[in-house]
Amino acid sequence: MKFYSTNNTNLRVGFKEAVFNSMPKDKGLYMPVEIPYLGEKFISNLDEYTLPEIAFHIATSLLEGDIPAEDLKKIIYDAINFYAPVVELEKSTYVLELFHGPSLAFKDFGARFMSRVMSYFLAKGEKQLDVLVATSGDTGGAVALGFLGVPNTRVTILYPKGKVSNIQELQLTTNGQNIRALEIDGTFDDCQALVKQAFTDDELNNELRLTSANSINIARLIPQTFYYFNAYAQLLREGINKVIFAVPSGNFGNIGAGLLAWKMGLPVEQFIAATNVNDTVPKFLKTGVYQPKSSVATLSNAMDVGNPSNWVRIADMFKKDTDALKKQITGYAYTDEDTLKAIHEINAEYNYIACPHTAIAWRALRDWKHERNSDNVAGVFLSTAHPCKFPEVFNKNIADKIVIPEHVKALSEKESKAVSLDVDFAGFKKYLLENN
Ligand SMILES: *Cc1c(COP(=O)(O)O)cnc(C)c1O
User: Where does the sequence pass through the membrane (predicted)?
Assistant: First the structure.
């Protein structure tokens, strides 16, 4: 498959180039030249397939010719080795739990697939790939654990000192092997600025083969389509075939993948884009005016994005047909107060604990159902992270009930190691060069 730039459909590259460059020079995003239709037979028989089987089928339809089937199969079975269950909370309300991977967030799907694809494309004798990533919490853990032990790669994570939760920090600092953590005495934006400057530094680029592995990489988008098909498969087994998805959205990669799945033939009635007060997209869907703005800090901080990068992909899929787009996507935005209320309501009604991002999606689904008076469609909201990653959000009553997975508990027994640096590019550069 060739991939084009959303800014210039004539600019076409192969999958390997799209993966290593992340972003075309014209600053568009890569999209497949053709979105394959997966066919009635596959879709109506989805209930017969497992998650890796579904993933393999989708990946083959997109990447046949780029990676031979046997190799692709190995990548998939190694990357997608955890489950994504659909759990019924009440009649026609389901939660799709995407937090059963190593970092306890849906980003594991993208990071694990991308890391293995990159490693696969690094031919024998090629220079080691140096991944630089700035994180406000979730991305760093998924990328670190995604690349952990992957041959010929090394990851350097920059995180803001004192601004990530305890579990998030342990996920960054206890890995060893090919993962290093840098604790920066500044904010997430400072971390991101250091990484950005590194990519423009000639000396660093001569010494190191740098890549950002960031969330706009097409190799992170593709594996996120897998769990939408797999969720539908699980509902088919219950005799359900009318479904809507409510997606907690920040950079709009997750919902973008859902729309890609829909374009590939997955019959989804509608998508709900659920955001916090960073409501650029819900506003656009209401007013028709797309007005990016600076991000505002909220309790659902993985969605604090004022100018979602993946929106151009979604616009591209609708070829500027705003009416069709508005028909397929509805937007809802909520305050922190709404978020806390939703967390309590979910807990009171279903004895279920949702992370703040997940709670927003549930609330949006409920509001959608009230407005549409629609009970004959299964509403699935996506749970993007395990609540134990955001302990400061919950009151003691709820916090005490959160069951921390064993492999996460074990992290506190491990040696935690981070190098502390100031917000100073010269110091950061010196560290990279001296520790090469
Ligand atoms: C990254 C993240 C999101 C936002 O996902 P996008 O693909 O950027 O829209 C939502 N929830 C959690 C927990 C996340 O880590």
Answer: none
